[in-house]
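Predict the holo structure. Ligand: calcium ion.
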Amino acid sequence: MKSTYRFLTLILLTALVVSSCRRDDEGPERIPERDRAAEVTAATAEIEAFLQTHFYNYEDFENPTPNFDYKIVFDTIAGENADKTPLIEQVMTKQVFDRVKPEVIYTLYYLKVKEGEGDSPLYADEALVTYKGQFLNLDTFDASDAPIKFDLTQVVTGFQQGVIELSGATNIIENPDGTLTFEGFGAGAVFVPSGLGYWLNSPSGIPVYSQLIFTYKLYDVTTDIDHDSDGVPSLLEDLNGNEYLGDDDTDENGVPNYLDTDDDGDGVETIDEIIINPDGTVEYPDSSGNGIPDYLDPDYPVLNN
Ligand SMILES: [Ca+2]
Ligand SMILES: [Ca+2]
Ligand SMILES: [Ca+2]
Ligand SMILES: [Ca+2]
């Protein structure tokens, strides 16, 4: 457990050094890292202020015209829009723990404007989406109108947690011109505090500690991913069942199980300590009968195949 956090901290520290180097006469200047718990309060206040003062084009979604693109558009509640329903009355919330400091809990706000009629992704799946990333001032920092596939373990936590609330399309039709039509897709948005976003590790163009908005359409879902190809599906490498793969590290070598091909570090590859049947089902032998399957048991380094 401890070494997992060391691993994560190492990534953040590397980012800290890179992102805080300023080329000036006085040499590199460090941006002090903020307290993660205190920052939750500040970030949540900023996001709630946005949700109270803004609305989305919900009327377009309620009565879609034939050519409506199902894109979420935000605007300020003011002037001729003074009577619009604020987002704060339409959002849903979920509790999400901080991936660096798990005792810190966020209330994550998200919007489900079109639920989707197909499969819903899990945190270890891949999702085919179009998306747009915006700051709270509604400037866009990133977008893809072409469907793009994301490994949901590799995106910022807030985006992952928003996308998994939707379902994908039920039917994908290939048109004569080569484009795809997705029937029954999902559409939503998530309002991401920096601690579930980029924190200090922000790509260029995104200021550190920015709160972000992602809008997205979910088209398709790829399940049963085995990131390290060791025969154990990634979902089953979430040993503590907290729906986060980064903090399960049986041999405490800094590589979490879902990316570790020898999970118990006994020198025998995981794939040689499990049985993959011809029909694809997997068995996890416990040869010593101590309740720990061989691939997680460093005291049982016996080849099974
Ligand atoms: Ca695996
Ligand atoms: Ca490991
Ligand atoms: Ca593994
Ligand atoms: Ca092993």
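Confidence is low (pLDDT under 50) at residues 1-24. Residues 1-32 form one domain.
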